């Protein structure tokens, strides 16, 4: 595929012509892209991102920015939307609405290949039939963009070597500047012009994409509603089955008890209702919609009649049969109700889908017409196809012109044969040697990149092994090596440490941090482990219920949690909460008045006051203290101990103490709250409230 693409480009290149108008356009684009590249923009930006799966809103209006070169962790419990957000950034799923930007460029509709990212999966996803070397080399052998960048890197090195010799052979500063400028324009145009075209396409496709999404969502929501209805019917039927089973057990137990104690009524009889039960009450029939309502009314009446029977008057066999018949009737009733409700849903969405399809077809037609008629887009499309080839041809034309003018090839040939001494001085020879490192074949470039990354992640000794012969930690390193070998601008990691043991997790996360910092790759890391997030991150995005709860540095989230969820999710052991009240400007924590603490922005209200487990001020029984509790659990971690303390009117609270404090289960513990380290939350909204204190 890559060979075919290169061949097509060769044919296109031979057909283009270098003219003044094309060179003028190249200069205009070059100036535009140069200005844009100097602007400070985030590496990743999410704008009002929504991902709707029908039954659930997986990502709810998420917006945040990730600065260049930072390691950002998406942290949250299962189902919070963190992995879905990561997959959206990667391009592995379609967003419902919103935008994803990489360095200011809209990539919302780009495939993962076009986004130029590295991805480390939870399960490593290595190719078992390939060696470690081949696994790492695989993306380089199959990535046209990387190969083109490597080609440009080689051509840049060759051009600098060429310039060194041309300067020695008498080329003017203007000629050297022209040659460098021609290469820079070719390089920048090749990279940024396709991005500009994609951005323009994204602008034009926006309304069409929205109409398409709304049309798809109408079908998704219909299916999810029917699916939810089906689940409810199954739950109802299961409950009926269980209730019937329990009722039968009770009936049998009561009958046997009454029989044993001579409490059975005299002249037990058979149930008349069982002798001639119409089939319509026990068998499902396919009915017209207007008949279903009539049938459900009949079934409700029959079920009520069954329930009104005094079972104590019946023989045991008929008692059981009545209960089983009641179960059948109620299940049949549920089925008819399901059919009725399903029909309502289908009718409701039939109208909606028709409207959305009409809107989609119209938007599709308008989009198709726009693509044909929009002059700016079509001109840009033509430029994106031709100008990089023209810029390349112009560069090589200048190269050929200057090489002929100053007889560069003849000079190099004579120098190689030893007919003339080298025109370069010693410093220039050193520079030549450095530049020659990039003047290599593609095969050599791939080998160099594999060996460089293998050295960096310390797996050189296992390069010839197959992944099945490696430990979990080694497989993880190979997975990361494969992700970073292309030197992606963005690295995405989905819970990469979850399959490792505790000790290896700690060493691997430290190693990942070192690699990330040394390469300066913008990294998005997903985990549910708050300790992992705190230790590895520059920025944490804490998520819950599909929303971003708080974004900031690890210490910002730990020391100033925005709400109760963040406060309790971050920190081990979990933060303790004391039920509190603000009354007449005074703060009462579990009934104790906290003097010297004021909440100027709050009036009378119910509050929760949180304290980190390590922040309690421990007192002696002879001291003046605020609270007393009883130790009910004690866990020793070596240098410190975790206590679970039961406090009257509060409940269980976690403490983390130095082992110099020797508490045992059953001991009383006396303590004060630290007024300078309180976390106060509104009991209703659970949002953080600022407070003031004086010593």
TrEMBL record:
Pfam families xref list: ABC_tran
Keyword flag Nucleotide-binding: yes
A GO CC term assigned to this protein in UniProt: ATP-binding cassette (ABC) transporter complex, substrate-binding subunit-containing
Keyword vocabulary terms for this entry: ATP-binding, Nucleotide-binding, Transport
One GO MF term: ATP hydrolysis activity
Source species, domain of life: Bacteria
Gene3D superfamilies xrefs: 2.40.50.100, Nucleic acid-binding proteins, P-loop containing nucleotide triphosphate hydrolases
UniProt entry tagged with the keyword ATP-binding: yes
Domain ABC transporter: 44-570
UniProt protein name: Sugar ABC transporter, ATP-binding protein
Organism: Mycoplasmopsis canis
Lineage of origin: Bacteria, Bacillati, Mycoplasmatota, Mycoplasmoidales, Metamycoplasmataceae
């Amino acid at each position: 595929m890559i060979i075919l693409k290169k061949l097509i480009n060769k044919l296109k290149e031979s057909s283009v012509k270098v003219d003044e108008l094309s060179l003028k356009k190249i200069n205009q684009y070059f100036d535009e892209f140069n200005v844009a590249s100097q602007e400070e923009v985030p590496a990743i930006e999410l704008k009002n991102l929504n991902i709707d799966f029908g039954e659930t809103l997986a990502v709810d209006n998420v917006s945040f920015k990730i600065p260049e070169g930072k390691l950002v962790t998406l942290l949250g419990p299962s189902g919070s939307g963190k992995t879905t957000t990561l997959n959206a950034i990667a391009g592995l799923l379609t967003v419902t609405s919103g935008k994803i930007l990489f360095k200011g460029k809209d990539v919302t509709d780009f495939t993962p290949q076009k986004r130029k990212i590295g991805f480390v999966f939870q399960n490593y996803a290595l190719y078992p039939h390939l060696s470690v070397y081949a696994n790492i080399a695989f993306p380089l052998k199959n990535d046209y963009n990387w190969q083109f960048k490597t080609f440009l890197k080689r051509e840049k090195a060759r051009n600098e070597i060429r310039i060194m010799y041309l300067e020695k052979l008498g080329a003017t500063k203007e000629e050297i500047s022209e040659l460098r400028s021609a290469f820079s324009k070719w390089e920048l145009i090749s990279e940024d012009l396709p991005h500009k075209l994609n951005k323009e396409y994204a602008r034009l496709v926006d309304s069409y994409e929205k109409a398409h999404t709304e049309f798809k969502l109408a079908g998704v929501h219909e299916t999810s509603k029917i699916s939810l209805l089906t689940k409810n019917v199954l739950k109802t039927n299961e409950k009926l089955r269980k209730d019937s089973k329990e009722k039968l057990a009770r009936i049998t137990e009561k009958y046997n008890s009454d029989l044993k104690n001579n409490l059975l009524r005299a002249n037990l009889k058979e149930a008349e209702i069982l002798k001639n039960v119409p089939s319509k009450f026990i068998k499902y029939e396919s009915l017209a919609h207007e008949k279903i309502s009539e049938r459900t009314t009949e079934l409700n009446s029959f079920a009520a009649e069954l329930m009104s029977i005094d079972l104590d008057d019946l023989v045991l066999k008929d008692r059981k049969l009545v209960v089983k018949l009641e179960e059948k009737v109620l299940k049949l009733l549920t089925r008819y109700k399901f059919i009725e409700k399903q029909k309502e849903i289908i009718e409701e969405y039939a109208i909606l889908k028709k409207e959305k399809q009409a809107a989609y077809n119209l938007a599709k037609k308008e989009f198709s017409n726009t693509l044909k008629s929009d002059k700016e887009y079509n001109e840009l499309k033509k430029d994106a196809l031709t100008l990089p080839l023209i810029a390349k041809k112009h560069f090589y034309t200048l190269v050929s012109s200057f090489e002929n003018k100053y007889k560069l090839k003849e000079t190099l040939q004579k120098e190689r044969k030893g007919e003339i001494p080298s025109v370069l001085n010693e410093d220039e020879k050193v520079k030549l040697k450095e530049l020659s490192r990039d003047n290599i074949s593609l095969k050599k470039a791939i080998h160099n990149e594999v060996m460089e990354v293998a050295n960096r992640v310390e797996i050189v000794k296992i390069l010839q092994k197959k992944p099945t012969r490696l430990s979990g930690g080694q497989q993880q390193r190979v997975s990361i090596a494969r992700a970073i070998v292309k030197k992606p601008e963005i690295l995405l990691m989905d819970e990469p440490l979850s399959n490792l043991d505790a000790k290896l997790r700690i060493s691997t996360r430290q190693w990942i941090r070192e690699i990330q910092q040394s390469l300066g790759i913008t990294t998005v890391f997903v985990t549910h482990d708050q300790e992992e997030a705190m230790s590895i991150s520059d920025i944490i995005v804490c998520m819950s219920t599909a929303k971003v709860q708080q974004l900031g540095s690890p210490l910002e989230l730990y020391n100033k949690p925005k709400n109760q969820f963040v406060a309790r999710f971050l920190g081990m052991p979990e933060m303790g909460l004391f039920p509190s009240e603000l009354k007449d400007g005074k703060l009462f924590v579990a009934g104790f008045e906290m003097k010297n603490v004021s909440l100027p922005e709050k009036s009378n209200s119910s509050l929760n006051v949180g304290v980190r487990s390590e922040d309690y001020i421990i007192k002696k029984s002879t001291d003046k203290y605020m609270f007393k509790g009883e130790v009910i659990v004690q866990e020793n971690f070596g240098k410190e101990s975790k206590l679970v303390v039961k406090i009257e009117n509060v409940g269980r609270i976690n403490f983390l103490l130095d082992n110099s404090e020797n508490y045992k289960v059953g001991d009383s513990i006396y303590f004060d709250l630290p007024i300078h380290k309180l976390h106060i939350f509104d009991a209703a909204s659970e949002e953080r409230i600022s407070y003031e204190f004086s010593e």
